[in-house]
Amino acid sequence: MIWKYSLALLPLGIHAAAPDFEKDVAPILEARCLSCHDEASAKGDVRLDTRGHLLTSILPGRPDESTLIEQISGPEPEMPKKAAPLKPQEVEILRQWIASGAVWPEQRVLKDNPPRNLDWWSLRPLRKDETRMTNDPKVNPVDVFIDAKLKEKGLKPVAQADLATLIRRLTYDLTGLPPEPDEVRAFTEPGRSYEALVDRLLASPAFGEKWAQHWLDVARYGETHGYDKDKPRLNSWPYRDYVIRSFNQDKAYPQFVQEQIAGDALFPGTSDGVLGLGFLAAGPWDYIGHTEVGEGKVDGRIAKHLDRDEMISAVFNVFTSTTVQCAQCHHHKFDPVKMEDYYRLHAVFAAVDRAERVYTGLKPEQEKQRNSLQAQVNGLRAEQTKLQTEAQRELGARTSGIERRLGELRQKHGSPLRPQYGYHSAISRKQDEVKWVQVDLGKPQGIQQVRLIPAYDKYNDIGAGFGFPVRYKIEVSNDADFQKDVRLVRNATDKDQPNPRNTDILADVGGNPARYIRITAARLSPRKDDFIFALGEVEAIGGENPGNLAQGALVTALDSIEAGPRWGRSNLTDGVFHRELDDPAALAELRRLEAEKAAIEEELRDARRDARLKELEQQLTQLKPRLEAFPKGELVYAAATDFTAQGGFKPTTGKPRPIHLLNRGDIRAPRDLMHPGMVPLWPGAREEFASAPAASESSARAELARAIASRDNPLLWRSIVNRLWLWTFGQPLVGTPNDFGRMGMTPTHPELLDYLAARLRDDPRHSLKSIIRLLVTSQAYRRASTHDETGAALDAGNSWLWRANRRRLTAEEFRDSVLAVSGVLRREDRGGRSFQDFIIEKPQHSPHYQYHLHDPGDPASHRRSIYRFIVRSQPQPFLTTLDCADPSQSVAWRDESTTALQALAQWNNRLIETMSRQLALRLEGSADPVSEACRLGLGRDPAGEEKQLLSEHLSQHGPASMARVVFNLNAFVYID
Question: Is the pTM of this model over 0.70?
């Protein structure tokens, strides 16, 4: 290696001239000293980044009396700590520079600039060692490497597993489900083909369901936001289905990677190009920091910084097994990642947020047009609400005493103040046509009760309760479209309801904030030859702010007859409604007070405000049909730059936020403006992208995606084949799957790892299934899991794979197996919205996910666990006990524990009780229920002692209890 400094070739102590500061001195200080002694760190209160600070550690002209020279010299120098000593040439350069007067250019400030040391196993180019390969097609390349290592270590492999064990192991590893008894029987007969079984299982739709679970673990997939307001994400599931489909279709791995980083840029016009971006949005998200605080405040900017950090960490941890996030506050202490690299990545994602976006049904330009129209509508509605609120506030201030007295009189006597009736829907010819009317309170407000007051019509002696629906429901939400955060507060849809006539309908809400109230008529009220939906008044009774919160609120509806003054949407919240009244004095007072209120209203009338409100209504009327002309499209929660604003959470529309390098990671201490780029760890990976700083948001992500998925990126290929090995053999070749850096572990079989990585790289199809097939057809995979004293003494952890690893069923495998063996698993019910094995309480604020209220016998939940709605703040208790992955972080390798809690859960959980009864029903009529239960659950006939004990239990406690015993056998819970 040629020494980089110009004076290095001169003999020590002999210099023709003083060392040059820029060429000779500054590089040494920046590379070897400033990681601990710059402005950001200043360890030991020592700084070496400016001449003024350096003078506390040196005496110009007297190097032997300088503290700096003393600490870096000698056979065991004190500095630098936890790093290799400076080379003798470096020490001598600093010595001579001090001796010559320590010349330092004025105003020069040094920066921490460690050299990039790429000499590490994971960063070196792949080496495809095929020198050991033979031409024998019966020899699996995997076994060549494994057997060589066993020989090197003096280990002898155990024998191959029996056929019944193999089919159970293989079926679980490839599909996550137990084999059917007929499949076991066919495979154990003469002439069976192991390779044919492998191909059948790889082609099964269940393969994608099983292997997508592995990927969703590392992708930190969940269907709620997390943090304290753990609100549901109702459109996360399309990303899950995308992952399942990608594994089943054996999508080329580089394309799979690129779609998840920049699919919208690299594969425009395709659904998968948008669905893949669910990866970036899959992790937790701070609802309060983004929507309620916003980027106008420091806490909101911190939330956005942490949001980008989460995306960046996921991209590099998952796709390259690199911990770039360690460079947030300082250069990475162990790997060649600088702070500048980290913040260049922030610039790549500077315009991206997490939100719902259309993935099919709309072209990209249509989506932009629709979002633009929606933004206009939202802006007009916000102005409309503001003006109406101002008017209501002025009126309320002047009429508070009148309103108080009116309230007293109405409560006691009622209020037939003028011939006004309320809301009236369009007429329908069908009674079961659904209609709805909705009240907008302007902002989320604490509601104790919703009160429905039936309409009254004297026409043809119809009287009280006119148009009140036969079946209906009342809901509240903070979402105007009632697609999410919906809380059902009264459900009267299960049977026909009597007409309430003059009786108010009350629904308890509980005081939790909600902005919108929707009344949905599921079955309309009959007239002579048609059907309608009518209401007299809707009131929202406040908690913290007593009174009717709905007074004067904006009303929208599916349809409406606007025939004032009798019928109209605004009549529903005007405070005027019919009451039966027989007190003339009260009626006179009511009319007098109403007249006074009307006079005040007229006095406060603002012509300009009224004109503007009329103009706003006209504009909304014009925009509504244009907005409705667009197809609704299907939504996925994914990385997005254009979406409907929500509070302080507003879209960038593709304009990147300015990104600065943050001193010590502090959002309040910005330094240099950063441009898009990345960590140059392999050929073709640029520190700063070619098109920066003018790069568009999508082009920057596209360049990052292409670089990461590059053929020349050894981390990409090593990382994924290590995961494939883990998901097949139960333990990885590199024990830290998300960290291939110097703080991670080194591979147990580096040559094998590189062979597999190069094989995947060089495969024209980049097929993951081809690698999986190679692994499971090896002799190493097919070994028994039996114990051997000699092998255990040499390799207790089985690092060299002299036997198979016995493993416990994962949480999802156990649940799915219980359902499958019980005969209720809905195998063909694939894809679509997730089933919920909980009941949500108070979804409009901080939802409570109540698992104990769910009925485990509900067929809607008898789907595979991959389709379960995954909550972050309150994970499923049963599956969590069985070591289910934490959805708030990237889980590269699941824990596998054996605890008393697991035994208790597997015996006492309500799902197990229910499925035990189901299995008992399935065994009815069987001539040998014990053997049948074992064939279904264990994949084999019971052994002699097993059959005897299970038969005794069956006779004493019945088939349901015997079924529960089967679910708890080690032979059911573990895979040999």
Answer: yes
